[in-house]
Amino acid sequence: MAEAGERGEPGEQFPGLVLELLQAAGGRTVFEHGDRVVSGAQLLGAVRRVTGALREHGVGPGDGVALLLGVSPEAFAAVLAAHVVGARVVGVRPGLTRAQQAHLLADVAFEVTDRSGERSTGRPGTVVLRLDDLLSAADDGIRPRVTARPGDVARLIHTSGSTGVPKACAQTYAAMTAGWALRPDAWPPAIRELAARLDRFLVFGTLASQVMMEYGLLALAAGDTLVTADPPDLPGSIVRHRATASVITVARLTKLVAGQRESPVDLGTLRALMVSGSPLRPGRLREAAEVLGPVVFHGYGQTETGMISMATPEDVPGSLGVPPVELAVRDADGRPVLPGTDGELFVRTPGQSTGYWQEPALTAEVFVDGWVRTRDIGRLDGEGRLWLTGRARDVIIVNANVYYAGPVERLLATHPSVAEAYVVAVPDDSTGEAVHAFVVPAAGRVPSLGELRRLVAADLGEACAPTRLTLIEEVPLTPAGKPDKRRLAAGA
Question: Where is coiled-coil annotated (predicted)?
Answer without folding.
Answer: none
